[in-house]
Amino acid sequence: MSFAAPVLSPWLLLVASLVSLGTIGLALAQRPWRALLADHALQHRWLAATLAVTLLWQLRAQAVDWLTLHLMFTALLTLVFKAPLALLSCLLANLAMVVLGRVAWPLLGVNLLVTGVVPVLVMVLVWRLVDRRLPDNLMVFLFVCGFFGTALATLAAGLSAVGLMALGASDPEVMHQALEYARFLPLLMPSEAFITGMLLSILLVYHPRWVATFNDHRYIDTK
C-alpha cells in the first residue's frame, strides 16, 4: 500500500520524512557499501533485485487517485541482503516512482516509511526470533521467515498506512476509503507470503550463500 497523492497533513508528512531519514542514516552508519565494494557478484545481485522490484511496483491496483495496492518484496530483500541494503533498495525504488511521476515528491518519506522501514523492522524482529530462539532447522527458517514473517510484514505495512491516515488525513472521506482498501490486506498477505516463500525456497536450494540471513553451515551442514 503506497500513497500516490498528498492526502496527509503537512506536519505528518514532515514527521514521516524525518523518521525515514533517520532510519536511512542508521542504515548508512552500518556502512553497507563495504560489502558491495568487496563483492562484485553481490553488486550485480543487489542492483538487479532493486531494478526488478522497481519494475514490479509498476503493477499496482488503484481505485482512487491517492492510494495504490501493490506487492512490496521488502521482506525478501531483507532476508537476502539484510536490513541496510534492503532499506537502500526501497529508497531507490521509491525515488524511481517519484522520478517517473507516479507519486509526488512530498510523499517520498511517508512511502519509504510504509513500504520500507516498517516491513524491514518486522522482518528483522522475526529473523532474530528464528536465529536466537527457534531450532536450527531449514523448514523453520523457511516457513517462519519466508511465509509467516512476510505476511506479518505486509500486515504491518498496511496497518501503518491506515494508522497514518487516522492520525492526519486531510479529508474525512480519505479515512473511509482507506478502511475499504484495508479489506484487501487479507488478499495481499498470502500473495506476498507465497511469492516470497517460493523465491526464498529456490534460493535456499540452489544458492543458499546468496541469502545473507541464512547460515548454510548451521542449518544444513550440521544436520
From TrEMBL:
It is a multi-pass membrane protein. InterPro entries: CbiM/NikMN. It comes from the Bacteria. Its main location: membrane. Pfam families: CbiM (PF01891). It is found in: Cell membrane. The chain crosses the membrane at residues 45-61, 73-97, 103-127, 139-167, 187-206. Keywords: Cell membrane, Membrane, Transmembrane, Transmembrane helix, Transport. This is Energy-coupling factor ABC transporter permease.
